[in-house]
Amino acid sequence: MALEKRTDKQLACTKAAAEHQKEWFATLRRDVFEHKRPYAIAQADTPLELFALLDLPVVSNQWWSAVVSSRQMSGHYLDGLNAQGYHEGLCRYCSLSFASTVAGDPALAPWGGLPKPALLAARLTCDCIQRVFHTWAAKFNAPLVAMDSTGATHLPPRWWELSRHRWPELFEPHRLDFLTGELKHLIQAIQKITGTKFEMARLRALMENVNRQEEYFDEVRDLICAAPKCPVRMNEQVNNVMTTQWHRGSEWAVNHARAFRDEVKQRVQQNIAAYPGERLRLMWIGAGLWHDAEFYNAFEEDYGAVFVWSMYLAFGPDGYIRYGLKDPLRALASRIVSMNEQLHNPPWANEWMVEQARRHRVDAALILLPLGSRPSVSGTFFIQQALEQSGIPTLLIEADMVDARGWDGAAMRGKVRQFLETRVAK
Amino acid sequence: MSAGLNTGSAFAALSFSYQERMSAAREQDQAGVPVIGFTSNTVPWELIRATGAFPVLVSPSTLAAQRETNRRMEQWMEPSFPGRIRAIFSSLLNGDWSFLKLLIVPRTSEPEYKLYLYLREMVRQGKGLAVPPLYLYDFLHTRSARSRKYGHQRTLELQRKVEQIVTPITPETFRSAVDEANAARSSIRRLLKLRGPKLTRLTGVEAMTAIGASYFSDRRLYAEIAEQLAGEVAKRPAMPGPKLLVTGFPLDHPNLHALLESHGAVVVAEDDWWGSRAAGWDVRSDLDPGTACFEKYYLDAPSPRVYPPALADRWLERTAKQNIDGVIFYHPPDDDVYGWDYPRQRDFLNVRGISSLRIREDCAAPTVPQSLHDEIAAFVKEIKRPRV
Ligand code: SF4
Ligand code: SF4
Question: Which of A376, A402, A403 to mutate to test the pocket of ligand 1 (most atoms within 8 A of CB)?
Fold first, then answer.
């Protein structure tokens, strides 16, 4: 996800992914400006599949936020937002893209900036997101589809064992009914814009493609777990996976996932390690530190410490695969209905992270504590305690995923070094 | 509250209930009445009451106690949670509320939903032995036909749950509970009239205290005492000072009001379920209990999740236009929600020539910086001048 800057790319796939995304965005801008083609902006946890199916290109808010951040522009935009009266205590991850719209300086913006969308869409998970998207939609004078978000009361801890085949019993039926209704509403809104007719059979085929894509990621994860040394750096895992996820189910995405699997497999067969001197395996918990991608390679030389895990690759197979597609729309609803619980909240997030740490033979975990994007902090302490109890030392990294203001990269590297020396180093 | 009845004036009795927030609930429990707790204004009080149980808002009694318990629970609940939620979390784990037959947590804000998940997890891990049985009331606030249907169904489910725990609701018990709640609402509305923007006889601190007490009291008794207070207050002379409206982060304490009033202003309204918006309309007793409660709470109870904003802003916009001299936006460090509404609401006021001041300091703290005092003093001075 837009991490190419200053981090070397070992895989041909990584370069291809970055190029694809850049080209895709340039085409989108051209289509919007020259051919007046509509497009949408949506939260990452919305059903991007429906946009693809109904011919409405979609830009994910979090992707754009990461792009802006990796260009070191977050401070500039967020300062601008604060100057308008939005105070500094408000969530930044999801509002950075909005801040770039408020600034309204396409000449400065990455790749020319976001043009006016025909539609915005968000799931109302936290209490702030309805506000961010409403204000953003008003700024663009574009409609917003706000899908409400229900609460879970049925939370079997080892959710990933049920999510592929037994998803109808993993999520409460009334929650699936509700979200399916929200999706139908979204479908109507998109259809109104593009005129493309929704067809269940096409959605089923797309969902099957998403399964294929995630199965390749599953294989990559297995390869990483089994190889003596990590064959692909976390940064490159994230770049390949996220670019693919933004286009999930498309022909390009399935092919790219396969090519990624092939390349990683080949590296494993040829005994190629991302960092041959690997002695320690690290886990990164939380969203990526999009403004300082180099951070993830900073501990290789001195400690042989390689980041082998982030949620981005692992969540593909565990969170997305859905078998039994008799009702593909309901299956799609089941894919997003509890993403927040799976990634952030107890017991789902902590149980999953411990399981992942074990499978990946992780020696220590660094956990992002993004106090600048507050609701996404939740669950952090449960995750930390669960890992510590399983014998995995943890370090909290107090930082924001996109806001570089206040980030002291050198000091944080020092803190990690000290942690590695005192609690981890073999 | 019964303990407070004999302590002197009506206000003293209400003040006792407001400060000693567990007192009435404990008395009821000791008298053998099942007590059911809830964590926000969006839980239908009448449904609980109609089963014969005593409903009580779970809220930490004093601010000092809040801070103390917060520190002990720091390892589980991150500092990103608002103080009120952290305090509820720790007081439940400490066993303060173990006598509750049920704790109902509504999905009326994200921190509350997470409070529910955290408590469940503590129980699952064997660390929440003192936590009462939990129930998530998955109540949505977007105004769509789908959310309405979902919320209605969840309310009927809630009804089944409380009936199962206590006793089934009958038309008589429901009518009685509705009468009790509506009587309290009516007396709150009477108090609100005594602090109108035209003529104010009640301070903001008194109003917050007197209204807030309703969440912790036997509402029949509450209505009587509040009426008594209204009767006493009606004889007072009108208060001087510019009239303020407070909006923003919900206030479970009267400290901000005390601070503002120490500078000669008087707070006459707050866009807050702890103050002016506590009562709202009456619940209907001619519908089935679940439906009647759902209609009231879905359409009339404030929540940070009410959407679209035009609806959420309606009360503020209407009230601000009624001779209010100035508006205070309260966005303490705990706020990461209401700040999003600020530029829009500020602009609405600016266009109408209504002055506003934003406060970012935590006014629940025992002291506030001198600079804030200076800012408030200057603001009050400024709005005292007649508007052109
Ligand atoms: S809490 Fe999460 S979803 Fe909400 S605005 Fe922040 S990062 Fe976005
Ligand atoms: S709240 Fe978490 S899962 Fe949701 S967008 Fe933010 S970081 Fe991602």
Answer: A376
CATH code of the domain containing B98: 3.40.50.11890
**φ/ψ (deg, to 5) at A361:** 50, 50
Does the C-beta of A60 come closer than 6 Å to ligand 2? no
H runs (alpha helix) in B6-109: 10-19, 23-30, 45-49, 63-72, 83-93
Residue B337 to residue A128, Cβ atoms within 8 A: yes
> Per the domain annotation, does B58 fall within a domain?
yes
Instruction: Using pLDDT thresholds of 50, 70 and 90, give the confidence band for residue B67.
Output: low
Which backbone phi and psi does B253 adopt, to 5 degrees? -150, 160
pLDDT digits (tens, 9 = 90+) for B136-167: 999 999 999 999 999 999 999 999 999 999 99
| Alpha carbons A284 and A396: distance in angstroms, whole number | 10
- Decide if B286 is inside a domain: no
Cα(A66)–Cα(A80) distance, rounded to whole angstroms?
18
Judge: B146–A148 Cβ closer than 8 Å, yes or no: yes
Closest CA to B290 of B100, B180, B163: B163
Residue of A nearest to B110 (CA): A126
pTM of the complete model: 0.96
| Segments making up each domain of chain A, as ranges | 12-424
Q: Walk along chain A (426 residues) in steps of 10 and give the mean pLDDT of each run.
A: 54 96 93 92 97 96 92 95 96 94 91 94 96 97 98 97 98 98 98 98 98 98 98 97 96 98 98 97 95 95 97 98 98 97 97 98 97 86 98 96 92 97 88
Mutate to test the interface with B, among A126, A341, A350, A371 (most CBs of B within 10 A): A126
Is B70 contained in some domain? yes
How far, in whole angstroms, is CA A240 from its chain's centroid? 11
What is the side-by-side order of every strand in the sheet holding A364-369? Answer: A305-309, A280-285, A364-369, A394-398
Q: Is residue B83 part of a domain?
A: yes
Comparing C-alpha atoms, which of B38, B343, B75 is closest to residue A135? B343
Domain hosting residue B116, numbered range: 2-171
> CA gyration radius for chain A?
21
Helix axes B83-93, B110-124, angle to 10 degrees: 20
> Are the Cβ atoms of A148 and B147 closer than 8 angstroms?
yes
Which residues in chain A touch residue B304, judged by CB atoms under 8 angstroms apart?
127
Q: What value of ipTM does the predicted structure carry? A: 0.95
- Please give the mean pLDDT across all residues of chain A: 95
Neighboring chain B residues of A146 at a CB cutoff of 8 Å: 142, 307-308
**CA gap A244, A186 in Å, rounded:** 23
The number of domains in chain B is 1
**Dihedrals phi, psi of A81, to nearest 5 degrees:** -65, -45
Quote the tokens at residue A298: 């900073």
